[in-house]
């Protein structure tokens, strides 16, 4: 029997709160970073670091601006008039729901066989990151 030293954790779709807590600890340790940048009224977030479940590195980029998914009617205010879109990152906390996208195929089931690499990317974990603007990301506790 030859055992792999670190076999990838099996794929599991979970959003258990423990992973949110684990992600928070990674943020504190600096192994995971979440950055929000705003440009031209468009705020985007980048989460970069290691997954709290499978420990693979991944990068998650997304736009934070409230987007209407209607392809037919574009209701965006022309010229960027204020009022419709709430500016993100001004004074409110930003909440990011992140799903692992490490790109490493994780085996499904208990057979140990690797799943289709094209179908599964990431270990399936979802967790939440809260960013408090104007606040030290790694603050000293009182
Ligand atoms: Zn992974
Ligand atoms: Zn993962």
List the helices and strands and how they pair.
Elements: H1 17-29, E1 32-39, E2 42-50, E3 57-63, E4 94-99, E5 126-131
Antiparallel strand pairs: 1-2, 2-3, 4-5
The chain binds zinc ion (2 copies).
Written description of the protein model:
By secondary structure, this protein is mainly beta. The protein has a domain at 17-63 and 89-131. 9% of the residues lie in helices and 25% in strands. It contains 1 helix and 5 strands; from the N terminus they run αβββββ. A 3-stranded antiparallel sheet has the order 1-2-3. Strands 4-5 form a two-stranded antiparallel sheet. The longest helix has 13 residues, at 17-29. The protein is elongated, with a radius of gyration of 18 Å. The chain starts with 16 loop residues before the first helix and ends in an 11-residue tail after the last strand. It binds zinc ion (ZN) (2 copies). One zinc ion (ZN) binds next to loops.
Identify the notable features of this structure and list them briefly.
5 strands; 142 residues; elongated; two-stranded antiparallel ribbon
**Estimated helix fraction:** under 10%
Count of individual helical segments: 1
Average pLDDT rating: 76
Query: Terminal Cα separation, in Å?
Result: 52 Å
Query: What would you report as the Rg, rounded to the nearest angstrom?
Result: 18 Å
> What structural category do the secondary elements indicate?
mainly beta
Task: Give the SSE string.
Answer: HEEEEE
Task: Report strand %.
Answer: 25-35%
The counted number of beta strands is 5
In this entry the ligands are: zinc ion
